[in-house]
Write a structure and sequence with these properties.
The chain is α+β, with helices and mostly antiparallel strands. It has two domains: 107 residues, no CATH class; 98 residues, Homeodomain-like (Arc Repressor Mutant, subunit A, Orthogonal Bundle), CATH 1.10.10.60. 44% of the residues lie in helices and 13% in strands. It is built from eight helices and seven strands. The strands form two sheets. The chain has a four-stranded antiparallel sheet, with no helix packed on it. A hairpin with a 2-residue loop joins strand 2 and strand 3.
Length: 218
Amino acid sequence: MYPSWTPTMYINLGPAYRMAIGRRMYTIKEGEDVLLLRDGYVCRYNQPDDYIFTVKFFPGGLEAVLGLSQLSLVGKVVRLNEILPAALLMKVKNAHDFQERKLIFERFFLETKSRRKGDHYLDFVNDTIARHITGALQFNVDQVAERRFVSSKTLNRYFHRVVGLAPKKYFSLVRARTALTAFIADRKQFNPENFSYHDKSHFYRDMMGFTGQRIKDF
């Protein structure tokens, strides 16, 4: 899995499994649950009897719901029982199916978020990301800042505080993932200009930097 900066919870309902995170190998024990920021390369080694329930947040989502800053997660594998109540995790694991687990988490997160006050920085960044994703994936940070009526310096400061990296880096990551998904889905109809790439060579170079592989290897 390529970097996405989307905090992800892995609730292990089955046996132990292994994950490579960056250059380190981790063994996640049976019954052990973890939280990753997904700020780097992650490879999970699938097994036939894997049984993992995942919960993924948009950047800043953990801070909005639990008050947990993404900056504290960079480069770490966090034990989920340090973040969530043990009783909640046990309730999720004892649930009968996916739908029941989903409802348990939804109720908990909504109730938790309702008790938190708004955060100007968080709201601003989340809104900026939403506009970027639903728009034309504009890559120019100065233009993004201008549309939000702030300076590029302010935009950078807000993103570093909430997401943990510069907006230019985050937007390039979103663009690369979105473009690569579209390319794999329909190579013949793929047009790199739709994702603000100058041409195919520009797209190929970016994919090499993003994945570490040549595009022809996909």
